[in-house]
Amino acid sequence: MDALLTDIATAPNGEFWFWTGALIVAALVTLCISFLFLKRSRLITDTPTAKIRSAPQGYVELTGYGKMLDGPPIHAPLTHAPCVWWWFKIEERRTSHSNGRRTTRWVTIDQGRSDALFLLVDDTGECIVDPEAAQVIPGIRHRWHGTSSRPRSGPKSGSFGLFGRYRYIEHSIPLLHPIYALGQFRSQGVHHAFDEQADVRELLAEWKRDEAALLHEFDADGNGEIDLTEWEQVRARAVEQVRAKLAEQAAQPDIHVLARSANRKPFLISAVPQEKLVRRYRLQAALGFAGFLLSGSAATAALVARGLL
C-alpha cells in the first residue's frame, strides 16, 4: 500500500489527474445510480395496487396477466412463440486484422421491439396497455447461436453452442403471464355525445331514402303515401330505436388505457413479481452505493497522497 501511495505521489500530473478524475466521476455516477434504484424501489412500495374497474385516473399500479387484443396475433420474431411483448437482437461475429493483431467483435445487424397494444386483465376488468417508451422487464430471455443471419431453429434445438457466427437474443412476455405495471391510467367512454333530435333526424332521412320499405312498414291504409297520422308513427318508431341504441351504448364498459406519464414518471411493465422487483432494485442500490464508497475512497486517498487534502 505504501508503495502504491508513493507511486501516486510521484506520478506525472496528467496521469494523476486522469485517473483521479475518473475515480471522482465513477463515484458520482454510482451515487446517482444508487439513489435512482432506491427511489424506484420506494415508488413501487409506496404506490398502492389498484383494481382496473375502480382505479383512479392518473398514476397507478396494476397487477394481472397479459392477453392479446382482438386482431392480428403477436408473435416473437425469432422463436415465433405467441406473446404480448417482445424484443430481439441479432449479432454477427466479425474478425478484423490490423497491425498484425486479430480482433473479434460482435456487430448488431438487426434488432427490434414490440409496440403492439395488449390487454392487462385482473378479476375486475381489462385495460389496454401501450408499451411504447416503457421499461419492460421480460419473463423469458433466450440467447443462442447459429450459422445464418436469421435463426433456423429455436434456442433449445440449436446445436452450434458458442461457435456459431451469429448470436440471437430474444426477450418476451408470454401469454397469460402475470404482469406488474406502473403507469398513467385513463378511462374513456365508448359512446359518442348524444343528441336525440339530431340522431332521430338522421334515422328518418335514412328511412326516407328507401321509400318502398317505408310504405310497406307504415302505410296502413294502402293509399301509397304516408299521411300525418302515419308519419307520427314513423317518428315514434325512430325515437324508440334511437333511445334503445343509447341504452345499449351506455351499458358498454369504459375503455381503460395504461401508457407513459406526461410528467415523465417511470412507466414500468414487469413480468417479475412486485416483491422480487423491489428486492432487485434495493440490491442494485446497495451495489451502487458500494461502488460510490470504493471510488470515492480511492479518489480521496489519491488526493491525500498527493498532498491536496
What does this structure look like?
There is one protein chain. This protein is 39% helix and 28% strand. The chain is elongated and about 115 Å long. The chain has helices at residues 2-10, 13-46, 196-208, 211-218, 228-251, 274-305, and strands at residues 58-67, 83-98, 101-113, 118-122, 125-129, 135-137, 140-146, 166-174, 178-188, 255-259, 268-270. The mean pLDDT is 86.
User: Spatial order of the strands in the main sheet?
Assistant: 1-4-5-10-9
Structural class: alpha+beta
| Sheet of most strands | 5 strands, mixed, barrel
Shape: elongated
**Total strand segments:** 11
Question: What's the alpha carbon Rg, rounded to whole Å?
Answer: 32 Å
Number of helices: 6
The secondary-structure element order is HHEEEEEEEEEHHHEEH
How much helicity do the residues have?
Answer: 25-40%
Average pLDDT works out at 86
Low-confidence stretches: none
Distance between the termini: 18 Å
Fraction in beta strands: 25-35%
What order do the helices and strands come in, and which of them pair?
Blueprint: H1 2-10, H2 13-46, E1 58-67, E2 83-98, E3 101-113, E4 118-122, E5 125-129, E6 135-137, E7 140-146, E8 166-174, E9 178-188, H3 196-208, H4 211-218, H5 228-251, E10 255-259, E11 268-270, H6 274-305
Parallel strand pairs: 5-10, 6-11
Antiparallel strand pairs: 1-4, 1-9, 2-3, 2-8, 4-5, 7-8, 9-10, 9-11
Helix pairs in contact: 2-6, 3-5
